[in-house]
Amino acid sequence: MGASLVAVTIMSLSGLAHAQSVADVAPQDEAATTSAQSAADIVVTGSRITTSGFTAPTPTTVIGEEQIANNAQPNVFNTIAQLPSLQGSTGAATGTFSTSSGQQGLSSFSLRGLGTIRTLTLLDGQRVVGANVTGVPDISMFPQLLVKRVDVVTGGASASYGSDAVGGVVNFITDTRFEGFKGNILGSITKYGDDETALVQAAYGASAMDGRLHFVVSGEYDHEGGVGAGDFGTDLAGSRDWYRATTLFNTGQTNNGLPQYVYGDYAQPYQYARYGLINNGPLQGIAFDANGTPYNFQYGSNGQPLGNGRVSNCFQGNSFCQGGDLSGAPGSGASLKSSLERINGYTRLGYDFADNNEAYLTVNIAQVKTNNQPSPGYNRSNLTVQCDNAFLPQTIRDQCAAAGITSFDFGSSNAQLPDPQVYTDRKQYRFVGGLKGQFGLGGTDWNYDAYYEHGITISDIRVRDIVLQNRYVAAADAINLNGAVVCRDPVARANGCVPMNIFGNFTPSASALAYVAPHENGPFQHTKLTQDVVSANFSGEPVELWAGPLAVAFGGEYRREFYRVNADPYGAGVSPLSPNDENYPADPLLNSDLGSNWAAGNYKNGRGKYEVYEGFLEINLPLFDSEGAGRANLNAAGRGTHYSTSGTVWAWKVGGTWDTPLDGIRLRAVTSRDVRAPNLSELFAAPTVTTLPNFNDPFRNVAVSTFQNTIGNPNLKPEIARNTELGIVLSRPSWAPGLSLSFDYYNIKLNGVVSSLSAQQIVQFCFEGNQAFCGGFSLDNANQQQNFVNVQPFNLASWKTSGFDIEASYQWQQPLGLPGNFTIRALGTHIRKFIVNAGIAGVDPVDQAGANNGATPDWKWLAVQTYDTGKLTLTVQERWFSDGTFGNQYIVCQSSCPASTGNHPTINYNKMKGAFYMDVGATYKITDQVSIYGKVDNLFDKDPVASPQTNTGLDINPALYDTLGRIYRAGVRFNF
């Protein structure tokens, strides 16, 4: 069959030269190539063997140019992420609720639900500098118009490609020999009039010097408007009406025979209101309207204030009532999708200095900007207000006097304040110089591929309109002094404090805002990442054996990863804050040593690096090749890797394929030892501080505000995985030459997983008597700004997951006598189990398979039907995943419940519906060079189902559910 085995497969399926799309997502064993390519260009993703007739044992799904084009997405990431084997990938619709993560708008893949850091993403088989300290690249920065195909290896490939390939490999293959001029213009908008998108792409390629010099350049601009935040309460962006503030209400009771958690809609936090609520003492239950007029707050659940901070008939465990006045609840105020702007420029210059030998240089410069709103206003539930506050209505002062109190506890969403905004700006500069081709040695032709890559990512994060908490407290505490309203604290006054009215919708003065939430000098993080890679790989057939040639591949790689991050002094802490810094002046009210003065976005300073040295050897041994027995091969590889931080570790794989004598049937199997080294973030993380405003303190059974301090661990070791796959393939049998089917079972065991418990788990396990968790938090400080829970990663956990993949395609030529071809394709993944074991005494393993608030549903399918006449192409696509649960750790009961524990809490309802989405599209060729196209995603405008938590966040799971609704797309493509 020659080196272009998959190209031959595609032609056999279709019977037509133009029908490569037939097998774009059909079951494949090798990477698709064209017969015109030289042997040096043939790369079988999942193996380093580059030789004719080689069949890799690791399953690989191939997405081709036409499938990418038919899906009509502004980012090719969206097309690839739809594959069922990809679970938990991140994009512009994820991470929008976060202020501090720095991953907003970062497009990265996750295979098998193992996380983005365990999927190795390559560009033309080469590593790409990370767009974040986690080390994952941003697909938005790839030269997308030049992508010929994407190979998705659904199995461990560390022995062939190195660290991070535990879940598999996603390899983008570009057209390095493109000639001509082509472009794509796309526009889209949602049914709700938002996320307006404009994409312009163009590429030009030419050759000179009798075809020995090759030049390719491409550029693209993409603007995606995003879906902005709604308002407080339940109002989402546009006319979306599906948000109901669904929550798992915590009764606070664990041993009364009733479930601890109760599922319900319209959760109302009873510790704060839109413009303020007295939440403790004899005046508890008095709120303030937009005009600052006091009124009796309407609690849900027919609740009545008890004067001790609690409300009757409500849920004390997480301080919620059900129903009532939701106008101050911030859940719906987060962006549904970050706005995104990306600019990408790419150039490749190649010179054939000899036949089948090329020297090349590539330059890729890209920038991606995003913006999102994590939540509105400033949620503060623990403010102490003095009864002589200058802005307090006289009626409340009188009630204070009658009750004999001089102060009260107060909570507010502070809707009068500007809404915080997070802006990210990532710039990437990537340079690659390399040699590849063939040479003869010992009577054998050898392929080689050597390159040096230097990548730089500069990432800036700015947060606007975030409150400095101690300044907010000082500005809110206003008094009358000598006929003027001023801040009570003389130290604060001396350092620029400007009083602020917090009782009503009174927009603070410009000077008050500049003091409380300095707009231009808010939280800031500047990060520089560099990656240097030197790699050389060789492949050949040195020996002819009884059943064919022995194929060998070997090579080595050196890699250096480095990062440095600098943050603003109010967040990071500087001792002391410089009195000469006009942007961040010294202020006795602020913590100059530890920082963490912002309500959110307290970035820290940090730096770190590590180096990697590795070498590998891979062989393909033909076992037999006869008409009676069929053809079989054994594929094996080993790789030794030395990390400067953790020493030497070994990876290996052993597998093989058997083309049986049965018509079209192939068997394949592979088992491997795979590794993932800790990344820069895990080893040397600049400490991040996240505010948890409604943290449940089980010791006092109250909700408190606390900081979560996340820190790195330089003593981490590599994770070790054992990956086994068994499969059967039916490929183009004589009785159905248009049919391809495959079934692959997988089993992955991952040990030494770098992970940490949540802040809530740490405190809960201490409360239940496990002293190992009791040294890293403090929750009962009178000043709640001193509350904290430390979260740090360790090699403690282990994961076990297993399941199977099903892929199928079939094509009819001239169906029902109609011109053209009709193709159906389907891919499905079933997760049998996904057991997460924290590796800590007292913490039970949890099976996350089917937990739809995560990324691992029991079943996930993608099906595509295409009718192509050569002039007109019609496409219908279905995406589906199965019903699941909120979490499999829960015990469902209505009464006579067992004791509720941190391992197995009781709950009254634990079902989470799956979803079915249909997309339809069409492409029409006006001429051979120009086509117009249109597409509708989520045709039936399917709403997401609630993914309830125990807090006030936006209760959806954008990693699994479509949160935007129906989208209309249209565009034009040209190729001259």
TrEMBL record:
Keywords attached to this entry: Cell outer membrane, Membrane, Receptor, Signal, TonB box, Transmembrane, Transmembrane beta strand, Transport
SUPFAM superfamilies: Porins
Pfam family name, one: Plug
Membrane-protein topology: Multi-pass membrane protein
Domain TonB-dependent receptor-like beta-barrel span(s) in chain numbering: 536-939
Short sequence motif named TonB C-terminal box, residue ranges: 959-976
Compartment(s) where it occurs, according to its Swiss-Prot or TrEMBL record: Cell outer membrane
Limits of the TonB-dependent receptor plug domain: 55-169
Segment forming the signal sequence: 1-19
Keyword Transport: yes
Name this protein carries in UniProt: TonB-denpendent receptor
Organism: Sphingobium lactosutens DS20
